[in-house]
Prior knowledge:
Layout: H1 4-21, H2 27-58, E1 63-68, E2 79-84, H3 85-113, H4 118-133, H5 135-141, H6 172-180, E3 186-187
Parallel strand pairs: 2-3
Antiparallel strand pairs: 1-2
Helix pairs in contact: 1-4, 2-3, 2-4, 2-5, 3-4
Amino acid sequence: MVNPQITNLAIILVMMQVSKKVPFEDPQVLMAVRAWYVVSNLIIIGMYLFIQTKINKKKDMTTLKYVEPAPMGSSEEPKLITTTVHSYDLQQLRSLYKSQLMGVGMMGVMHLYFKYTNPLLIQSILPLKGAFEGNLVKIHLFGKPAIGDLKRPWKAAAGFMGMGGEGPKADKKSIEAAERAGSGGVKEE
């Protein structure tokens, strides 16, 4: 399967070229692009609301234990987290809502304050693509089983150039080491 970062880069490059040809000076074209942006964000929010109802309806109370790595550059010990699949999924959904709202806020500043119009096209497609590639969507919307890469806890997406912190560890050895270190039993609701 093609790496999502590669397809994102391809979409950005293509849409940058397309946006050069779009006559944003025409008020009708500008309004249509704005409408497209709003509709794409409404689709994403609607999808997240649907997933939230599915999570709450399922209410999977299976215990989930994992070791959350210490933040990069800190001297903290890794922390053992004990939660349920239900609350883990809701926590992940909350972070998706936050990142979506941050993107809308940044786009609002760029478009309304700085008068940039070209990013509207790109930001109408990329967040929608990213939402459909998310683990929660794959499990709760498309009905894929939570095995392999979809097994909770999920690894954080790699950052720039594949760099980024290591993801949470759910193996027995890591959990036992964290319990012995005294950082265990933090129950998240």
